[in-house]
Amino acid sequence: MSDTFQALKRLMHKARLSLLLLSALALGSLSCNSKPASPTPAATAKSRAALTTGWQATGSMSLPRRLPTATVLDSGKVLVVGGWDRDFLASAELYDPNSGTWLPTGALSLGREGHTATLLSSGEVLVVGGEIGSDPGSTATAALYQPQTGLWTDAGSTSLARAYSTATLLPSGKVLVAGGGNTNGSHARVDVYDPAGGWSTLPSTMNDERRRHTATLLPSGKVLVTGGRGWRIFETAEAYDPGNPQAGWAFVAPMATPRYDHTATLLPSGKVLIAGGRNTTGPLNTSEVYDPATNSWTVAQMATPRTLHTATLLPSGKVLVAGGETSTPLDTAELYDPETNTWSASITLRTPRRLHAAVMLNALSKVIVLGGENVVAGQTARLNTAELLDTCETVTCNTAPSQCHSSAGVCSNGGTCTYPLQPAGFSCNDGSACTGNDVCGSTGTCSGTSVACEAPPGQCYQSAGTCSDGSCSYSYKAAGTQCDDGDACTLSETCNGSGGCAGTPVSCTTPPGQCYQAAGTCSGGACTYAPKTAGATCNDGNAGTINDVCNGAGACAGVPACTTPPSACHDSPGTYANGACTYPVKAAGTACGAGQVCNPAGQCLSGCWIGGAYYAAGVTNPSVACQECNPGVTTSGWSNKAVGSTCAAPTNGNWGSCDGFSDTCDETGSQSRTVTAYACTSSGACGSSAGTESQACTRSTGGTACGTSYGGWGSCEGFDNYCDTTGTQSRTVTGSTCGSGTCNASSTSTETQPCTRAAPNTSCAAPSYGAWGACSFSDACAQTGTQSRTVTTSSYSCATGQCVASTSTETQSCTRNTDGNNCGTPSYGGWGTCSGYSGTCDETGTQSRSVTSYSCSSGTCRSSTGTESQTCNRNRDGVSCGTNTGAWGSCGGFSDFCDASGSQSRTVTDYECGSGSCDVASSDTESQTCTRTPPGPKACPPSYGSWSACGGFSDACDATGTQSRQVTYYTYSCATGQCTPTANGSETQTCTRTPPGPQACQPTSYGPWGTCNRATPCGQGYQERTVTTYSYSCASGACGATTTTQTQDCSLPSYPGWTLCGTTCTVLDYDSDNCGSCGNACTGPKYNICMEGNCCNSPSNCL
């Protein structure tokens, strides 16, 4: 294969995604889950000053490699497999971190790039798929590397040829291979490799056909797939649970930005970091973090747009992104901090590179990047170099944990900072305003001398206080503690428990005389008393005076007199004796004024004297309710009350039921009852009259249903697929309930009914056939084999409403002539003498040796002996060696993806000898027009969001609701060659749930039995208690309580003389049916009256 052809093929493959991204992801996951050994501090502790800064060169690989895979083995060595350098590489080599050198190891049977490499639980490495140099351009084969022998063994094949897929090691030890692409486009198929049983295909495919995506194993055991490209560039993400394979693949929340050629890294928190990549706008400078717990994404801005880079999880939990490309390969690196969701610049690579590999060397706490390609002076160069970065260089140890640690820390164990202690006595601030002279102790703790609180604000505070925020506070002494308030007019001072001191005031209650105030005033410990006002009553001690009063100066004096009887019921004058006048009382009943009489106590009152007793005016006769004392009529007898005067309290019947409401929601009505009034008649009797009275009453109608209204039927929708002719249509049902006495709309629900539409046209195109493939044979010499071709059939898809093509394979036998073909590895004799040169620039002569080769003859491998030669060197630098016209390049330069006319060019190169080879001396380019079948325009199917939660239930017992999802419609863009979103809509379908109700409520509760109420004189009674029952309300979604009253019989002591005979309560002395004893009936024609317990004919004639 010529260099020119290889260069053109390289250009054709330039845009393809590096599977390196997936390898870096898988290895990043391993580094997250594999805790490095704990070396001794002497071996690992390095100050930043002692580090060799920046990326350091290490040994180079034997070959340049673009897009290889790199896998850290259990031994710590790194296995690098495949890639591309002018051809697809089958070789592999090992990097020894301890020596920094590369070692050869076994090669694959088939060169490839864009493959996957997965470290199995057994320590073996599984390589799957990839691009290859022969038809059909990619392979389904898998190989297994055994580190103990360094050899590869066949591991079967996946169900289809694929490159740029993902391979995820599951907790079960199986490997999940998802998606990828080949010449037929991207695929959604998923295969599983079981080390014990080989390959199988999952029944469920991914929802989107995708390649150049990422796959991440989550801590839950689920596999998260993000982005990639297929019929468009995807922002979608989906997850698969190996523990629940029946559930298949389910969409999760989509990313904010469509992307492919990105990286995915599992963070220690269980979240997933998606970084960079590209879409139709070019390389991206955004990252997104997925949180499985909330099914949400968080966006962060990167400094540089990049794709085809690597992402490595560091021991510190940060993520190092290195290299990649924007428009050319990058040497920059960035560091992601999950704690702040921010990016910062990191250390620049020695060499710009893209399509490289990077892994974490845990034993050395270093990151190695290797291979890839760079562009120098406009020429693409594959790289065989590797470089190392100590992870301590990604950490700045300048954040000491306290003031008592040195601010200059030491990095060790791949990113752990330790900080030396400050010397004991080092000045610090412990943050407390209640300490002074703060210094560091030997353990790194800052402490100071406590502030002394020994000056309480008073004698009723404790002598020792406590400090807070720099201020002293003191506790109160207990109430009753002795103190001195400094006041001579108080006694027995004690603390009050609130910091105050108080005593009992001196009592000044012994005035020097009765004409002084009873309460005096203390001053300086002595009491003084003020005189009473002049005229204040007193007793001068003289029995011959009356009306003694104070004179205002503290003296008392009175006058004697007995001429003023206290009332008209006393005679005058009175008799003065012992300092007082006494007056004789007039006879009770003596008239002492108009309508007034004297009572026995000598009081003149308005009333009557009747039957030797005094009755006040208006008092009712105790024996006749319609008579009263009316002194205006007579004071010596009872008078009839006025006609109509109330003579007894009215009696009321029970209130009737509340009714008379105007409508269902009216809460105000009326109720009535009978009222019996009692009033005096003209004859003085107490008569009765009956009437009625009414009052307003209320009821609660809140929540009572009072009407339902219906909206119009909506459009017919909710079809399961394009073939489904039966859908549903809905309308709004508005329920009204009472509230505050009026009927108001209170709830809105939706009711649905089935509807139909016309069936679609399901006719599709006839089958088409691909060209017959190459003939495959059982061995190198077999002359009869088989060849296959693809058969594409179309069938109508009810899911998309379009004809969907499916591809199958048909096979036929074929023959070839293998006579003369090689069929085995030749054996060689010793080299002969070197002689002769072959060409103009040839600096090497030839030497020969015998070669025993193996070739086919009549279908059998046979041996034959010949010779082979090798070259010897000479110097031919600068000698012209010819002109080469390259092959026409691919047709390009189209104005858009719908343009069919373009141009193609080829290189015309002049060569001259240099270092023994014919090298390019000058190069020109010539062009011509060309045509193609353009990829567009084409139909773009819509994409669907996840169904929303089921809702819209009429009440808590309703099991049928609705759910909706977003529908995005796409239009093919000739400018981008992609289907781009042009409109958004939504669709709704019915859904069901297990409703929360009805549900069991708490059991019935019972109140205590009340007091026994007597029902009969025989002791029969009843008592009541409340019974609360609970029932579930679908409307409120809760249990409600209803209270009733329960009654039961009870017993009390019988009244004297009463007996219970069966169910009859009676007096045996007078009951003719139970006379003298229960059941003894007086039934005779003569003795049929019960008297005093005997059956009698008359009181004097008894049995």
From TrEMBL:
Keyword terms, alphabetized: Kelch repeat, Repeat, Signal
PANTHER family (UniProt xref): KELCH PROTEIN, KELCH-LIKE PROTEIN 18
Short name of any one Pfam family annotated for the protein: Kelch_1
Signal peptide stretch: 1-34
Protein name: Kelch-like protein
SUPFAM superfamilies found in the cross-reference section: Galactose oxidase, central domain
InterPro entries cross-referenced by the UniProt entry: Gal_Oxase/kelch_b-propeller, Gal_Oxidase_central_sf, Kelch_1, TSP1_rpt
